[in-house]
Amino acid sequence: MYIQTNCDINIYENKAKRKGGVFVEEEFEKNQKTILIVDDEEPIRDILSHNLTKEGYRVIEAGDGITALEMALSEHPDLVLLDIMLPKLDGLSVCKRIKNSMNIPILMLTAKDEEIDKILGLELGADDYITKPFSIRELIARVKANLRKVEINTNSRNAESEYIMTKKKDNRIVVNDLSLDLDKFEVKVRGEIIDLTVREFEVIKFLAMQPGQVVTRETLLEKVWGYEYYGDIRTVDVTVRRIREKIEKDTSTPKILITKRGVGYYIASK
Question: Is residue 121 included in any domain, yes or no?
């Protein structure tokens, strides 16, 4: 399997710097992000580890699904790069189990072109996917974009104030039956707490900041997924469908998150 890269990598030297799947070349700072790479092909792990370490990330690795689960639960990584085809336990099952235990970004790696793998991965809670072969530059951009969306940006609240809101007090947004607590990252519908992923929360927050205003899929990709996002625009549709399954009484006739056919989505203001 080929991965495009702009630099030569000495895999054997790289392997010597790893101990127990964890890079020990230098003492990591407390605020350094940890990335768990899960792939059964060691050369791919070597290349990804080398490049992500160069970007300043702490890297840990697993070569099968069972080990990946154990490392995710013990190491609490900030992001997981997860291959679909794995021994012992497939990547989709690993994704589902990790998401049931913790809310961290998962970027699926797949050599399959079938759309079903991509969509199924997202439905199980994956935040993003990238198809092999891929460029290192693209993968790193995806990693940065996904990590950036997890961080709480306190300065963003000043920018958000320019949007028209139905009601906002105590850092909450309320639009009819929909209520968002921005401090707790909590969403309620008709008083019931809804369990959303970080990405799902960011999507519904962005739409709720401007109720009744249609937002295009392209804008959602740019604002929620990040400027460096390279993904298929259908990722937005899949994420919206996941949100609807959680907040709507009847997904066939949504009353909260509405589609403007051929344009995008909006939160109903009336």
Answer: yes
- pTM (2 decimals)? 0.62
Q: What is the DSSP letter of 14?
A: H
Q: With H, G, I as helix, E, B as strand and everything else as coil, classify residue 2.
A: coil
- Number of Cβ within a 10 Å radius of residue 72: 23
What percent of the chain is helix, strand and coil (3-state, nearest 5)?
40, 20, 40
Q: What CA–CA distance (Å, rounded) separates 107 from 117?
A: 13
According to DSSP, the β-strands at 34-38 and 58-62 are parallel
In a domain, 1, yes or no: no
Torsion of CA 201, 204, 209, 213, to 10 degrees: 160
Strand partners for 259: 265
Domain final residue, candidates 99, 124, 150: 150
Does residue 2 lie within any of the structural domains? no
Number of domains in the chain: 2
Burial of residue 114, with CB atoms counted within 10 A of its CB: 0-12 exposed, 13-18 middle, 19 or more buried: exposed
Give me 148's structure tokens. 């950036």
Domain boundaries, position 163: 156-267
Both 128 and 162 in one domain: the answer is no
Question: Do residue 247 and residue 208 come from a single domain?
Answer: yes
pLDDT tens-place string over residues 110-157:
876 655 566 666 777 788 888 888 889 889 988 988 887 776 443 344
